[in-house]
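User: Mind token order:
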Amino acid sequence: MACTAARMFASNATLCACEPGFYLSAAINGTCLGLPDGGWQVGSVGASRNQSFYFLTPVLSLDVVRRLTQSQALLLEATIAALLSWLAFCAFARFTGHDPTGNKRLFRARFWVSRLDCIYDTTHWADDQQVLRKRKTELGGTCSVASLILFVGLVTVLLYQAIQRRNIEVHRVKPANAPDLLSFVNDIEFHITTISSMSCSQLVAPSTIAMGTPGSMDFRLLPLSTLLTYNCQNTSQGPSVSLKCNGCRIPPRDHYVSWQFIDLPRQPAAAVGFQFNLTAKQHGDDKHVSFVSGTINSDNFTDDKLKTFRGRDSNVLKIQLFPQTYINHHNLKLLQPLVQDFTQGSTFSDVRNLNASLQNPMDGIINTTLYISYLSNYIVEISNENVLGPVSILASIGGLYAFSVAIFLCLMAQCEARIKKLRDEDSRMLKILRKRRAQQNWDKVRKFVMYTWGPSNLDPSDRSGKWPESSVMDSLHGSFHKKRKPIRRATSNGNKPKRNPADAGVIDIERVGEMQESSSSRQA
């Protein structure tokens, strides 16, 4: 066999091996692979939901979604976006809505913006010694709505904080006694994966478990089946050893469990690291679990050389179980696993020494020891305490309102003080609207007259809006003669007052025919 792949060398005439820090993977065409991303990565979550439900994690990171949907930053960004959108709309309407006739839609939008001035209508610029009056301006409407948007956004963030963080998690430590420790009944699982090209056929299964301190009077050696159940499973990264204990109580002594991997023909015992996943849950409760997981390569901080584990010296993984009582979860009692230390065994960091070890049958072994320690002197009690009450929330809302109003009040005062044109913009806008309303009313009168007396007597070519006085009077005279007959009164001419038509200011419409006859006779 030609050992031509990367990171590979020939250990003898028929065997290929990988350089230190790499293992031969049969799943990927016999290539040499290193450790997974990261070195010693440890994560611990107390009283968390069962991790088996997170089946979408490879496709969609639920932690990222949770941070985006349950974050105050999202609410603040939405508030700022709405505020900037409103200010941009008002600025656009201000600079493009100039119309002396008041017919543009943007000018009408500016007018309705001024009608929204409900907060600063009495705080606009006023000359000295003038009576205070309400003024609804476009700048005041813009600042009023902007302050309300900011206030609503900040109140939303405050309510979110009051709901999500209305209490804090308090940890109290108390000394442990025997009845408290006996109340902890947990299901514990230890999964240790040896990252290598080995298989479970090379494993020498553990058969005994040691209890107590070696060399002391309380040291005991018991069969493994009295406390733990053992299982081995082949994975893509190597054999995984599982140790489980159902309904375990906290013992007063430490435990030691050891197992070995040995050489087989064409399958040497060599590893590049260990992956661990330790979980604990209360017996009968599958909703919450405490866990710690990670990857271990070698505990050597003096250099950055990659190493391969092989030899008689044992690799010791020290794990501590710490009792915790979650009062805020109905007195949930969990043992929190902690990875306290890792002591590396025999390792090789160069190809020559590793090749010599592969040729030596005395080094054909990997010893692994799981050291389980119980921190049973103290118990941590976890509870929640309220930090926000109704009075504090109301006080915070009042402060946010004053803050929002003060910001835009200063902005409006600065704008009106520096730009004199803004001081009387309400009167100019109202004057344009009055002129436009008067023009609309005059157009209505024209339409009414045209509809009532007909358009024949009006000059359609006249676009100025002014009617000739003679045509109007003729139209009125002809229409009244058609509709109503003149009424003659039985009075003598001597009793009638003498009138001069040139000095008359008002024409009696009911006696139009009689006045015309008298005027013609006088002229004759």
Summary: The chain is about 30% helix and 30% strand. The chain has three domains: 38-58+173-384, 72-166+390-431, 462-523. The CA atoms of residues 186 and 283 lie 5 Å apart.
